[in-house]
Amino acid sequence: MSSRHHTVSAIHGDMDQNVRDIILSEFRSGSSSVLITTDILARGIDVQLVSPVINYDLPTQPENYLHRIGRSGTFGRKGVAINFVTLDDGKILADIQRFYNKVDRFKNHDDRVMTTYEDSRFDAGQFDSKMSEQLASEAEDAFTSYDEVSETFDVMGLRENLLRGIYAYGFEKPSAIQQRGIVPFIKGLDVIEQAQSGTGKTATFCSGILQLLDYKLVQCQVIVLAPTRELAQQIEKVMRALGDYLGVKVHACVGGNRVHEDQRILAAGVHAVVGTPGRVFDLLKRQSLRSDYIKMLVLDEADEMLSRGFKDQIKEIYQLLPAKIQVGVFSATLSPEALDMTKRFMKKPVRILVKRDELTLEGIKQFYVNIEKEDWKLETLCDLYETLAITQSVIFVNTRRKVDWLTEKMSSRHHTVSAIHGDLDQNARDIIMREFRSGSSRVLITTDLLARGIDVQQVSLVINYDLPTQPENYLHRIGRSGRFGRKGVAINFVTFDDGKMLADIQRFYNIVVEELPENVADLI
Q1: What residues contact residue 210 under an 8 Å CB cut-off, 6+ apart?
Q2: 69, 91, 361 from 272: Cα distances, Å
Q3: Is the distance from CB of 276 to CB of 226 less than 8 angstroms?
Q4: Domains in the chain, start-ordered, CATH in brackets?
């Protein structure tokens, strides 16, 4: 493709972590318009502007199709997936259609070497019904019944310093999966927890782990396995943040980093290890990672972990762990093959399925402002800030260029603002976020890249200067992925061209966004 003058990037598992980070950063920034990769990037990588996805080769497992075409989160995403199908691919294509209960028409054009798959979006209803059907097909005596729902974190019996970490991270009310999934885990039960990506599964198992650790014993007591380096590192960050007041020592052991560095950190002592199966197995075999005190094993994105690609490694790791161990399995989907695998190392697990329609925007008042022209948004924004007494707020725009432009415009009007986007290095981002958290600046302007990572308790207002390009990002923007019950106000600037997206958002979340009332000052 390069020889035909296409600007392409390529990424695969043999590259070290630094190289992968650079390539992904370039792709996110738009420096390259095409990314060629393997299933390694089917999960955990969210690039907002991707359209289309092309399966040059069909996936070898039907469940990977879902993760490829929309980052498990396909649920409602608009886009196009094009599948190249040879004669030999007929069986896997049929398997994919059967797996997702979707048999659509294909149009074959004699004048094109292409097959177009019509209406290839994954349907949320199909997801829910498939998961229910899958679980219902299992014998009831294979599972432990557990129906308790905890509507607040305070009633879960969590350590005080864990609660401090949870609230400092930005959670006010547990999500549906957290309401049902944390308590059985901290009671020592094996669990299978399934919910759509972005519903708080990571915080669910991290909270359970942090509750059960013995902090006086600086030995590895839990292993969390994830299919990709990037996901493992994300989990490490969440666990470290939630355990900030507990003094948790957690380390990510992933390929691409030096084994000697892992060995040095493990020798110094950690409470928890998050990692990819290959590196964790290697360290267990070397006895650099000792299993003597390990009492928990957690599999994230478990459908991938229990597929043929990782299945043997998971078995080998499990065999090196103590006989009595608690197991947690977390995933958006679980194939029958993966579910069958769980029987080999789980003892009557509690099973929890949270459906898509249980996502909540409760507690967040949402409004829109009709703005006739794009050019008038700035005046509307400044009018709001002159009218309202706002503690702190976040403004979302859709491009890095607009972040810089809006920052300059607001600064020139004497507003104290900070700006953050993907081009800034990590140190600069940390400094800016620290200033914003401390209240040195009242306004943070950013893009969707950071919609999931902004955790500031004092934020009372989110403004979508630009509506998100995908409905599911609306959720992440207006409440710190935080659909988790955060109280506040969201104001959406809507031009004529935004009408369809606003309608999509309302339909996606089954909500009504009302026009901004005159008494908005009383709501903030």
Answers
A1: 159, 162, 165, 239, 242, 243, 246, 248
A2: 33, 42, 33
A3: yes
A4: 2-120 (3.40.50.300), 128-357 (3.40.50.300), 364-522 (3.40.50.300)
- Closest by CA to 384, choosing from 460, 454, 486, 446, is 460
* Residue 66 burial by Cβ neighbours in a 10 Å radius (0-12, 13-18, 19+): buried
Tokens of residue 200, six digits: 């708080």
Query: Which range is least confidently modeled, 223-227, 326-330, 360-364?
Result: 360-364
Q: How confident is the model at residue 335 (pLDDT cuts 50, 70, 90)?
A: confident
pLDDT digits (tens, 9 = 90+) for 347-356: 889 988 776 5
- Specify the pLDDT at position 104: 43
Burial of 201 (0-12, 13-18, 19+ CB in 10 A): buried
Q: Cα–Cα distance between 131 and 334 in angstroms, integer?
A: 8
Tell the residue number behind the tokens 């290095």, with chain if given: 425
Cα separation, 171 vs 166, whole angstroms: 6
- pLDDT given at position 109: 39
- Could you give the CA distance from residue 452 to residue 238 in angstroms, rounded to a whole number? 11
Summarised one tens digit per residue, pLDDT across range 180-235 is 999 999 999 999 998 765 678 899 999 999 999 999 999 999 999 998 887 888 89
Judged by phi (left if over 0) then psi (alpha if -120 to 50, else beta), residue 72 lies in left
443-468 b/e (C-beta count within 10 Å ≥ 16 → b): bbbbbbbbbbbbbbeebbbbbbbbbb
CA angle 265, 19, 396 (to 5 degrees): 95
CA distances (Å), origin 209, targets 14, 179, 221, 467: 31, 16, 9, 37
Long-range contacts of 154-163 (CB under 8 A, 24+ apart): 156/182, 156/183, 156/186, 157/183, 157/186, 158/182, 158/186, 158/207, 158/211, 159/210, 159/211, 159/246, 161/245, 161/246, 162/207, 162/210, 162/211, 162/242, 162/243, 162/245, 162/246
- Name residue 297's beta-bridge partners: 223, 327
Inter-residue contact 302 to 330 (CB < 8 Å): yes
pLDDT-derived band at 426, boundaries 50, 70, 90: low
Residues in the chain: 524
Q: How far apart are CA 249 and CA 218, in angstroms?
A: 8
